[in-house]
Amino acid sequence: MVLAAPAQAQAPAEVGQWASTMNWPISATHASLQPDGKVMFFGEFDDGLGPPRRWDPATNAISSLPVAGYNIFCAGHSYLADGKLLVTGGHLASHEGLADASLFDPFTGTWTRLPDMNDGRWYPSNTTLPNGDVMVISGEIDGVGDFNEIPQRYIAATKTWKNLTTAKEEIPYYPRMFLAPNGKLYFAGPGRETLWLDPAGTGSWKAGPKSLFGKRTYGPAVYMDGKVVFIGGGDPPTATVEMIDLAVAAPKWQYMAPMSVKRRQHNATLLPDGTVLVTGGSSGNGFDNAKKPVFLTELWDPGTNKWTKFSSNKIYRGYHSTALLLPDGRVLGAGGKNTKNGELFSPPYLFKGARPTVSSAPGDVAPGSTFTVSTPDAARIKKVTLIAIGSVTHAFDMNQRLLTLNFTKGNGSITVTAPSNNNVAPPGYYQLFLVNEQGVPSIGKMVKITIVSASSPSAATLPDP
Question: Which residue ranges does the record assign to the Galactose oxidase-like Early set domain (predicted)?
């Protein structure tokens, strides 16, 4: 058991603070932050047939949502440009996937069935594309190793599917897929062999740079400012961390500072100040070793390449656990196999003084533009970040990405430069944060990144990998 007794005696401004456990009716095996700041979650096994729940962080109230009409456990999910959640595949039995797909509308709380996919998908990954379409990759069909090898593109405008027939490839389930600045999709793992997917036409794969460690199964990977960071994972688990910069001409993996403890089945959450919070997991060998729980919370700062130990939570968060950044800067840790509860972590930045205020900001932001954010704290703003709203399951958030924005200070406002194009910022809802000189973030302001036509100069891409 990995505890942190010395850290727990420290002040919250140094190590943060976990709140009391919240008992919930189902395990939050799949969790998504809605554009209204509430959390939609659904459970494991037969709970995937029942009603998803919606939790309101402001009131702590939980309500039931309509059922999808089939078992959405083990589905993939990501957000469309309009804020609807695309849910792909589902659970017939272990390693047997459904071909079903649906849209969940968080504004009306309703489901819309879509045409079936080309075959079953159990553990697929969704990746939003620059024009708002979504690429769905992998997932098992009818047994262990029976992977759906044909990627499919969800055409958002027509609610139809397109098979990438020339991109047939056996890709492991819940692949760590990311939209890169060049407009291609990067398959980062969990194995050493990585790939680039060109989604144009009927698709094509190209070999990518090999990562350094072996298989990082059930290890999270995150995207921040063009870089992918892969943290821990594997069996036996590792504490190692590696990073690749997808924005350079010749990307290659490099080791970063390791965590203080090895982990698998953990979660990694992007924070407003540009750091990465790691929670939960197991340090033991085997699939989901609850006898070796990791309760210690750790934070990685990419600016210093250093890890800091934070306070420990109380509940083992392993297989089927999730973690999400909330608009108020707290992090929800929830779920786990047969674990029907949640915990809230307040990072140290919430104990370091008054937070900046966002008086007003535009609801829609076009890539390549500049926009004004009114704030009485303009003189003290040090950083501005955008974080795409999270949608997480099985140690991987398919939707979160962090972008650091340039800005200039004015009198009572700042002028912010939006991301250059939709390759950098795929369309959809993001949380906009202002961070002051003490590292304290504002409340996240929901903004929608709009779609800029590919013919626009601001949508130009980097050279091919």
Answer: 355-449
